[in-house]
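Private note to self, pasted from the team thread so I don't lose it. Backbone tokens:
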């Protein structure tokens, strides 16, 4: 799982993640790591990362101001080396999550890599035999490249990614 935080607030975010996921959701195996990218943490949870986001959303709807530093949660279902063939294979292994009658799009966010967005999108899309919908897809193949590691998930972006700032904006 990736956790976004304001720059230079990683220590506070790390404590919040430990509280929210480790204590409230009772993940005794949770491990939280700083990345070399300011404002970005990674988490290794023993729980289903998408379910973690859904449960955090429920908590945040009642307590949005408890989230001061950990403000964006993106679940990653597969973690692979940042090699094109490994990224494509990770996406292929998650295709069962996109029913044949549903549409998809590929979304790539990259940091500290020479891989190009367009190349990754084309390589992944080539193995998906579903209808493409760039504006309103049923599912998004979400790819986060961070240096030598890449996270891959199949998500419903509006439901499976938690952005505390967006939630707060929606409440007012």
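Design output:
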């Amino acid at each position: 799982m990736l956790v976004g935080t304001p720059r230079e607030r990683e220590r506070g975010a790390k404590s919040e993640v430990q509280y929210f996921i480790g204590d409230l959701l009772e993940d005794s195996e949770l491990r939280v790591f700083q990345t070399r990218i300011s404002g970005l943490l990674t988490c290794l949870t023993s729980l289903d990362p998408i379910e973690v986001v859904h449960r955090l959303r429920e908590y945040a709807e009642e307590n949005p101001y408890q989230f001061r530093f950990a403000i964006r949660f993106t679940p990653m279902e597969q973690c692979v080396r940042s090699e094109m063939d490994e990224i494509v294979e990770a996406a292929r292994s998650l295709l069962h999550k996109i029913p044949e009658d549903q549409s998809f799009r590929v979304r790539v966010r990259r940091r500290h890599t020479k891989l190009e967005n367009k190349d990754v999108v084309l390589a992944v899309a080539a193995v998906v035999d579903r209808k493409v919908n760039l504006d309103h897809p049923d599912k998004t193949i979400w790819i986060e490249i961070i240096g030598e590691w890449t996270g891959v998930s199949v998500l419903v972006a509006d439901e499976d990614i938690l952005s505390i700032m967006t939630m707060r904006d929606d409440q007012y």
